[in-house]
């Protein structure tokens, strides 16, 4: 255990794992999906999917990781004893590399807008920072991956944990401050109503339910091995269900907080003359973050430059806390299974990811949306389904219980053990499969 590194404290793990889960998938993706799916109706279904589907899969990853004390590929191979585990783990590693490749492009945009807002505070106008140029995208994608690389090289306790315990509280403070400020502005009340009052007739729409499931999996970093690898760094004395619950609650809580910020901010923008509707629907996706909100900040005058700086700092921190966990997945494999030094493995993989990002940048219209859809809408849910199969059908139940008992000797008597094994074996695979089929058919 000590040779691999481990989290030195429970708080360190919770903040690191929550940081992995809390990324652009929460701060950007969740409000975007809320906007696309009619507001509060999506919030309701997201909460249902997060607790009923995402949390059980999260626990499967944490238990497998801590029990096998290794990376995703090796852990699943040990459980299956055959090539099925190796193939599944390899697909998970490939998926997380592709996610990091497109994620770093978007995170680079956040950094460029952060620097642009800082320049605006100084009354400078550098148009290149917000231009849609290949050079700008390459530069800031490389800068973001460089920051991620530096953190991961530091290892588990001196890199990932050390930075997570600093970045996560900062992120939380920034988002709360922005919520308070935005809520005082004209139009915010309309945004609060759109976010909190559900249209009950839309809650069970197939498209909305599929989006809610995909968002829950993406925002909790499930199916691609990030939580499994983090689980392998948890000390044996820790109570895994409690830790998993803490991570899920922090992730869901910050997603909801992000909605409390972004949706009211859109209606504040509307009150300031910014168009927030497209064909009767709230604008979402990149246009929301890089057109609607910057227009709002501009309408605020001089104060808007400071608000923009805080907002894009928030977005950059959220992106970084997730990217370090994504890079750690393949790094752990090269360190555990191939014997590479952490520094060499991290630099090698960072270079590889930057190469893939560059290909996407040079073929943006063709590849960006394709890679996003392939990984987040197809690969992640299917990998989550397969992890349920591993935890519920392939791995022996008494071995799972023995692992859980190391952190809680009385867990067999508790509600978690009475529900989770059956739930992850029968309910989760069926529901995930049905929801996935609704997405593709």
UniProtKB/TrEMBL annotation:
Q: Which GO terms describe its cellular component?
A: membrane
Q: What is its main location?
A: membrane
User: What is the recorded membrane topology of this protein?
Assistant: Multi-pass membrane protein
Q: Which residues cross the membrane?
A: 39-64, 84-115, 135-156, 163-182, 212-234, 246-270, 303-335, 347-372, 378-395, 415-437
Location(s), subcellular: Membrane
Keyword entries, A-Z: Membrane, Transmembrane, Transmembrane helix, Transport
- Record InterPro entries: Na/ntran_symport, SNS_sf, YocR/YhdH-like
Mind telling me which NCBIfam families this protein's record contains?
Answer: Na_transp
Q: What is this protein called?
A: Neurotransmitter:Na+ symporter, NSS family
The top of its lineage is: Bacteria, Pseudomonadati, Pseudomonadota, Gammaproteobacteria, Alteromonadales
């Amino acid at each position: 255990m000590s040779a691999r590194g481990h989290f030195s404290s429970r708080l360190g793990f919770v903040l690191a794992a929550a940081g992995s889960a809390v990324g652009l998938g929460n701060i950007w993706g969740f409000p975007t999906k809320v906007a696309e799916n009619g507001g509060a109706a999506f919030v309701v279904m997201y909460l249902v999917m997060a607790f009923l589907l995402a949390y059980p899969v999260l626990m499967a990853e944490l238990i497998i990781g801590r029990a096998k004390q290794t990376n995703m590929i090796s852990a699943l191979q040990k459980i299956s004893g055959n090539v099925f585990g190796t193939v599944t783990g390899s697909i998970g590693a490939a998926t997380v590399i592709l996610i990091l490749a497109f994620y770093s492009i978007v995170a680079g945009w956040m950094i460029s807008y952060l620097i642009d807002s800082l320049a605006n505070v100084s009354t400078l106008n550098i148009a290149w920072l917000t231009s849609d140029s290949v050079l700008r995208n390459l530069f800031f994608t490389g800068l973001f991956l460089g920051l991620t690389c530096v953190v991961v090289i530091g290892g588990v306790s001196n890199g990932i944990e050390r930075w997570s315990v600093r970045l996560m509280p900062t992120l939380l403070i920034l988002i709360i401050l922005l919520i308070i400020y935005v809520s005082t502005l004209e139009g915010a009340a309309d945004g609060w109503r759109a976010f909190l009052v559900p249209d009950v007739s839309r809650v069970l729409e197939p498209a909305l339910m599929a989006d809610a499931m995909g968002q829950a999996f993406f925002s909790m970093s499930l199916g691609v091995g990030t939580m499994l690898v983090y689980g392998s760094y948890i000390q044996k004395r820790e109570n895994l269900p409690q830790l998993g619950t803490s991570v899920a609650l922090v992730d869901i809580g910050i997603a909801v907080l992000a909605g409390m910020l972004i949706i009211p901010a859109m209606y504040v923008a509307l009150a300031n003359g910014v168009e927030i509707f497209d064909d009767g629907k709230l604008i979402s996706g990149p246009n929301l973050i890089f057109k609607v909100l910057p227009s709002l900040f501009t309408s605020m005058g001089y104060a808007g430059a400071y608000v923009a700086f805080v907002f894009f700092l928030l977005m950059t921190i959220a992106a970084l806390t997730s990217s370090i966990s994504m890079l750690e997945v393949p790094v752990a494999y090269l360190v555990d299974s191939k014997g590479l030094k952490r520094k060499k493995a991290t630099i090698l993989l960072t270079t590889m990811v930057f190469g893939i990002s560059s290909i996407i940048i040079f073929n943006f219209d063709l590849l960006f949306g394709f890679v996003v859809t392939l990984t987040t809408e197809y690969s992640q849910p299917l990998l989550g389904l397969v992890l349920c199969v591993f935890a519920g059908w392939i791995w022996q139940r008494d071995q799972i219980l023995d692992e859980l008992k190391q952190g809680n000797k009385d867990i067999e008597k508790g509600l978690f053990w009475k529900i989770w094994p059956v739930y992850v074996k029968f309910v989760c695979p069926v529901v995930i499969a049905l929801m996935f089929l609704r997405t593709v058919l």
